[in-house]
Amino acid sequence: MTSVATHPSAISGGTSSGGSRMASAGLDLTHGVVLYLEGISVSFDGFKALNNLSLSIDAGELRCVIGPNGAGKTTMMDVITGKTRPDTGSAFFGQTIDLTRLSEAQIAHAGVGRKFQKPTIFERHTVFENLELSMKADKRVRTTLFSKLNSIQKDAIDETLELIRLDEDSNRIAGLLSHGQKQWLEIGMLLMQEPRLLLLDEPVAGMSDEETERTAELFLSLAGKHSLVVVEHDMAFVGKIARKVTVLHEGSVLAEGPMDQVQNDPRVIEVYLGR
Question: What is the pTM of this model?
Fold first, then answer.
């Protein structure tokens, strides 16, 4: 049940101009797929963290990725975001953006946002200020110091505050938020960057049951407008949000499909769910 992503650019020779095409052409979703990984392999000191990994994510899809520790989940996200270069294989964002040729900053600018397990926020600033500082805009010092928010920018922040359910805490110092609220704030900060693809690493780790439930509702509301790849060990949470699940094992796709199908796959039970 492995998924093989066949990217048109990989067949035709791809795009050689990298970042320049990225900025001018935008994201080409002609075939309805936002992310293609094909034949990706990564080795560290002889250990194969990824072994001929292939998968594709549809535009607007919410995909859950599960698997035991060491399955290659983090390395996969490192490749997508440019932190790690693959030894072999191709990675495309849309039809034309070759992720293996771009820097981490260029990939983020192209529309790939990543959230790590531990929230990273500006603890001494208010919730509102965190979102303002994260807004996709000119970040040069003079512009930042002397600019004022226009009505469109303020509306965007207000909409995000409501979406992440922190509208009543907008003037609160971020360091005083609960763990779950900090996670939502960081997701809001990513959303201010207007990403097309969100990579979320164990987003509900350490959350209360109520916070986990709210996070499930948030992710379901984001799907469609954004594409989400959620790496998570909490199977109850995965069950609430998953439409399609990919199981990684030893750097490759072991199984893929609807949650009930994956849960009943003998191979998945043996290497992961049965533990």
Answer: 0.85
